[in-house]
Amino acid sequence: MPTRTARPRLTATMAALTCAVTVSAMTGCGGDVARSPLQDLVSARTVPGAAELSQDAQGALRFTSAGVSDIRNGRPIGLTDRFRAGSITKTVIAVVVLQLASEHRLTVDDPVTGHLPQPTADAVRRVRYGRDVTVRQLLTHTSGLFSYTDDLAFFHDVTDHRLTARSPETLVRTAVAHAPYAPPGARYHYSNTDYLLLGMVIRQVTGHSYATEALRRVITPLRLSGTSFPGTRTTLPAPHGRAYSASAGGTPRDVTELNPSVAGAAGEMVSTLPDLNRLFTALLGGELLPAPELRTMLDTKATGGRYGMGVFPVRLPCRRTVWGHNGEINGSYVQTLGTADGRQVVSYRVNSDTRPPTGAEAELLREDFCSAPGWDG
User: Fold this and answer.
1) Quick one: CA dihedral 210, 13, 52, 140, positive or negative?
2) What whole-number distance in Å separates Cα of residue 345 and Cα of residue 278?
3) From 87, 228, 245, 352, active-site residue
4) Is residue 77 within 8 Å of 50, Cβ to Cβ?
C-alpha cells in the first residue's frame, strides 16, 4: 500500500499491520517458456507462495499462482483461500463512514471528539495541539495522531503474545502516550490510530460495531461470501493455507494464528481474492457510494496526491492511474488495484509479511494494466 512516505502497514510481528488456472510458468510466443511476474514475488527463504486474480475490461478472469500455500505438504494456493487482508479493511471502514455522511448522520468536517466515547474523546483532546481533529483528517491520515503500531514496546509485546486480545481503548492509550507527528491537517502521515478511531466513531453514531455495519452495508449486499471480521478468533476460516514470517534460521516461521483485535478497524478483515476484486469493482463502479461521496473518497488534495479516503492512487508508466489499497499483517501481504471505472481490477497476495520486491510488483502491474492495446507501456 504505497503511502508515499511510509507504505501503509499494520506491523507488530505483523511485519509492519473466475476461471482458475494454476501455473508456475507461462508459455510465450513460439512455445518458449516465459517467466510470470508472479514468480518473482516468491522466495524460498521468505515468501513460500503468491497468487493473483486479474479481471480485464471485458470481465474475463485469470487466476495464477506460484509456489505453495503450505511448506509442509506443498499444497498450492487456492482461488478461494481465506487470508488476512490487513489494511484493506480501511477501504471498507471508509465506505461505511462516507455512507453515514451521505445519510447526514455525520459530516466529514465534524470534530471527531463529538463522535467518540467520552474517555477516548478526552484522550484525543489532550494531544490535539489546540485544534480539533476532524473525521476527514482521520480518513485521509492527516490527523497527526501517532500510530500505535509505531510504538516499539507494543511491537515487541505483540511479537511475543500475538494471541492476546486487545481492546481499541487500550490501543488508543498506547497512541496518545506519544506526541503527535504534526498538528491536525498539517501534513499526511499514515497512522493506524486514525482508522481505529473511525471504528469507534461508527459504533458511537450507529450503536453497532464497525463489523456489524460493514457486513450490513458492504459485505452482505455484495455477496462477499469469503470475507469476515473475526474479532478475537485466532484461526482462519476454511479453506486456507498457512501464513509465514521470515526467521533467522532461514525457514519461514508459521504465524497463521493471530488474535486480530490487535488490528481492529485498521486491519482485522479476512477475505479472498475474488471478494477483493468484487469489492473494488463495486466501489469504483459507483455501487457503494453516491457520486459526491465517491468523489470525496478519491480526492487527494489534502495529502499532496498520496491518499484519498481508504484508497490511494498508483500512477503507472503507461500514464494510467489505478486506485486501491494494500494490506500487511502477520503472514500476509495483499494489494488490490483497479481502474477509475472499476472495470479492470487486479488483486495479488503472498503468504508472508515480507514485502515483495518493488520491481517485481511494478512489473506485475505493468503487465496487467499497461499491456492492453492502445496503451503505451
Assistant:
1) positive
2) 9
3) 87
4) yes
Distance CA 162, CA 260 (A): 8
DSSP designation for 25: S
**Phi, psi of 329, deg, nearest 5:** -160, 175
Q: Are 142 and 184 in contact (CB under 8 A)?
A: yes
E strands, the chain, are 26-27, 33-34, 49-55, 61-67, 83-84, 244-245, 253-254, 270-271, 312-315, 321-329, 332-338, 345-350
Question: Which residues are paired to 52 by β-bridges?
Answer: 64, 348
- Tell me the C-alpha distance between 165 and 171, whole Å: 11
Rounded distance, CA 199 to CA 188, Å? 20
H-assigned helices in 4-117: 89-102
> Is 87 a catalytic site residue?
yes
Nine cell digits for residue 343: 472495470
To the nearest 10 degrees (0 to 180), the angle between helices 168-176 and 118-125 is 10
Residues forming a β-bridge with 134? 111
Reported as a single tens digit per residue, the pLDDT across 270-318 is 999 999 999 999 999 999 999 999 999 999 999 999 999 999 999 999 9
- Assess contact for 306 and 187: CB atoms under 8 A: no
Q: Closest by alpha carbon to 137, among 176, 182, 173, 169?
A: 182
Model pLDDT, residue 4: 37
Measured CA to CA, the distance from residue 51 to residue 18 in angstroms comes to 13
What is d(CA 22, CA 28) in angstroms, rounded to the nearest whole number?
16
**CA distance from start to end of the chain:** 22
Residue 51: strand pairing partners: 65, 349
In the chain, % of residues over pLDDT 70: 88
